[in-house]
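Sample intake — Transposase
Collected from: Thalassolituus oleivorans MIL-1
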Amino acid sequence: MARRPRLYLPGCPLHIIQRGNNRDACFRDNSDYKAYLHFMREAATQYGVAIHAFVLMTNHVHILATPSTEESVSRMMQSIGRRYVQHFNYAYSRTGTLWEGRYKSTLVDTDNYLLTVYRYIELNPVRAGMVGHPADYPWSSYSYNAASVEIQMLTPHESYLALGKTSALRESAYRDLFQSHIPDMDINAIRFATNKSWVLGSEKFIEQFERRVGVAGKTAGHGGDRKSKAYKKSTTLTH
């Protein structure tokens, strides 16, 4: 079966996931996390990728980013992957692959899902039972988005900037977003769209994408429209 093409739309952010091979650990020591972040910062700068949010888990990585060109993210991930595998194999006297095939990604509907994906990414350590609050996990973008901790590679998205006129107001509003649960339907939609490389968005957004690009944005039976009765029911049940 032919590989599904990477989805791209100018100015549209992507949610990216890369997993360790066989779900094995791809980070064993603090120096590994630091090395990956160093390589990501350099590659993002080199290939014109704006990083908005990230989390480095023990055996996988999540990134929310907006590429400047159709090839920007692919080149960034290839560069990170190549350099980090060399680091990891040398550090632990191993050979062979580290990653589980190609990275996966999905286009994110800014108006309906972007800030939810921010939260989904930074809440990964909480859902995994590693920490009680995202502020307690050192290898994510939460400290930058919620508490002004400097992380040089990060570029705030316009939707984040719209949370407030000052950094203090934005950070306060951002922290408030974490006071409520992400509805199960949203979590499932994010996972499905990313794993299958479909568009994460409302029916309107997906239809607009399909008209502009001429590529299917979803599979039958898996929408993401927040105006649907199913979504509203899910929201009611999960809050």
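Post-analysis note: Confidence is low (pLDDT under 50) at residues 222-239.
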